[in-house]
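My main concern about presentation is that the manuscript never shows what a single data entry looks like. Each protein is reduced to its one-letter sequence and a matching series of backbone shape codes. For the editor and my fellow referees, an illustration may be useful. For illustration, here is how one protein appears when written out as sequence plus structure tokens:
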Amino acid sequence: MLTEPGKLQREAVKRRKDYLELSVLKALVPEYLESEWQIDRDLKINTRLRKPCGHDERLENKVWYLCYLLGYPEISSGRNFQVKIQRKGAEPLNKQIDVLAKDDETVVVTECKSSANITRRTLQKDIEEFASLQKPIAEAIRNHYGRDFKPKIIWLFVTNNIIWSGPDRSRAAGSSINIVTEKELRYYLQIADHLRSAARFQFLAEFLSGQKIPELENVTVPAVKGKLGGKTFYSFVSTPRQMLKIAFVNHRALNDPSGAPSYQRLGKPNATC
């Protein structure tokens, strides 16, 4: 896991790009040109090369960069990040996780699937495998960070150019796996780029709706009760830090059916700290 701000920032610089970069000796350039690398810039001694990332790598990079923009202080490193898990009656094995992010209260575990072109395909096998590993992965996380760490784990299945079937959506919902398509991913990247770490609470509110928040268990505020249009309301004053943990702002860009037709424009970063 990357935890140092400097290392996270360097990784973010690479992840936000849709291409790979490499600097090699001029004598080695012809060899790389045969492997889809292209010349980006001739330097005095070396030559800088680049080549486009594959569609699957671009998707993983976007998810990783989203976690970075959301301000997660710990994010998995590289594309081969693995967690050692133990299943009953089986030998320990290393399970690759595309993106894993952690803060003091939550852990995001992500599985990414991408297609070069828009296609319909069954994800039954992938969903069932992901679901079967939820408990072992959760146990591995708690073993690593200590038994006192009891996070809310958000299971994400992120796809690109894949049309989900009704049965696959039902399978995912039955295992508490949240579906994020390229459309929702663009939305989260937009608000994260705009609000930065404050957007994490909007992100969490989407996937942890209705769940208790331990940090607010003993928080009380004075309120004035009233009625407006036959509806009961409470007027109170609270801090942004408290409100961010319980509020969800429906945006037109998200097109949330439960929130339509009302929506709110994106907030200002300096007003959401």
Q: What stands out?
A: The two ends are 26 Å apart (CA to CA). The chain has nine helices and twelve strands.
